[in-house]
Amino acid sequence: MSAPAPGARPHRQGADRHRPRARRLRTWADRFRTLYGAPPAHLLVLLASFAVCGYAGVRLLARDGADVAKWVVGAALVHDLVLLPLYACADWALHKALRLPVRPGRSEPGRTDTGGSVPGGNEPGGSDHGRTGRSAALRLAVLHHVRVPALLSLLLLLVYWPLISGARTHYRAGTDLDPGVFPGRWLLLTAALFAASAAVLALRWWRTLRRAR
Asked: Most buried residue, 36, 117, 119, 187, by most Cβ within 10 Å?
């Protein structure tokens, strides 16, 4: 093998020193993504959210630290001991109603992991594979389109529970507004969330059927 030509290495080093600035920045961003696991903007947003939460926590603790601590501990206990079992059971019942496996990867004999019958399974002579796949996909989509509005509705109920339940009796004195409107508004908002989710599901399914034709 012939030796490299004299001056080749200094020439390459000079080219590296004069790389465009955008390329050097892209290389730095790629290295950061490799080490951190996300782009730099993710870290900036995360630090900003920590700063906002820290500021809110300092203000709350400075005003009424004991009540805030009791609320946080109580909310954690209520969530883990009461709410978590309740919505886990509700999600299990929804899986059973839609004939979907509760644990991904574990399916019943003659069924796919998404709950549809496999061709040649329980039905004599098998079934149409495309129709079975669309049926399983529809049931899975229904599951997600029920989960999302239910989660948002429960989150609103948790955040505004003192007003919805009427426990905050000083609300009228502080705002001169009737707190009795909050339960009805929460129900209306819940109905609107489920209606919007159903409309999106219907639109997505119509587009799927249109593409399949």
From this structure: 117
